[in-house]
Amino acid sequence: MTAKLFIHGVPDSPAIWRPLLAALDLGETPVAVPALPGFTAPLPDGFAATKEAYADWAVGQAESLFAAYGPIDIVGHDWGALIAQRVAMLRPDLIRSWAISNAVIEPEYRGHRIARIWNTPILGEIFMALSKADKLADGLAAQGMPADIAQEEAVQWENKDKRRAILKLYRSAKGLSFEHDWARDIPKLPANGALIWGEGDPYVELTVAQRYAATNGTPLTVIEGAGHWAIAERPVEVTAALKAFWSAL
To answer: What domain range is 232 assigned to?
Structure first.
């Protein structure tokens, strides 16, 4: 059995994986679904909450699974997709495959509007101070996230450390620009990779995934009628894509 590591994104928690994990029905397969540090609990002492810190943390998660089960399948969504790719770049020896949804390390991408706000000192803090949990829940549900999960994510939004961590994370990535660092290591990625994309993503448009796939030869599955949270909005279709990908390895 190949262990699976699922890494969530922003502003999510591990709850976002629940519909997909139910559809995958992985049985006795070892599965890890950790929370990004600071997202469901206070930030650990000394944790910098930068993109490098989160990548190092995820490498540690992968190392633990590898020690017990051998090379793993890593799956990421949103920021978790970027972190999953970075783990595969840094430690390809730990990885059997990587599959990512609705975010990708792509040199031409410059981030969405909210990412640019979070990247801006003072403006980002004002945004966070004015963001209300109930409005977040409504907004996430309106964009396709299951309502019960949107409510859970809104509860987590009350955690001030989470909002602080998000600002630090986005600022460490200059909004969402990887042209001068992580994108230069794309050739280090293991060949066994896949993109799974919600067709109507307003944050990372489908054209970004199509450009990456064309440039790097990575297979792309488009989930029609889905948005940014396709993993939770259309778990059956995402399950089919993942199982087809894994079965071909």
So the answer is: 4-107+180-247
Chain centroid offset of residue 107 CA? 17
- By DSSP bridging, strand 193-198 and strand 31-32 are unpaired
* pLDDT tens-digit series, residues 104-131: 999 999 899 999 999 999 999 999 999 9
Structural domain count of the chain: 1
Amino acid at 98: W
Question: What is the pLDDT confidence band of residue 1, given thresholds at 50, 70 and 90?
Answer: confident
Q: Which amino acid is at 24?
A: L
CATH number reported for the structural domain that contains residue 42 in this entry: 3.40.50.1820
- The CB-side HSE value for 89 (13 A sphere, CA atoms) comes to 19
Is residue 137 assigned to a domain?
A: no
Residues 6+ apart with CB under 8 A from 21: 6, 31, 33
CA-CA distances (angstroms) from residue 49 to 37, 53, 195? 8, 6, 26
pLDDT, tens only, 44-71: 999 999 999 999 999 999 999 999 999 9
* 241 within a domain of the structure (yes/no): yes
Instruction: Answer yes or no: is 121 within a domain.
Output: no
What is d(CA 158, CA 28) in angstroms, rounded to the nearest whole number?
Answer: 35
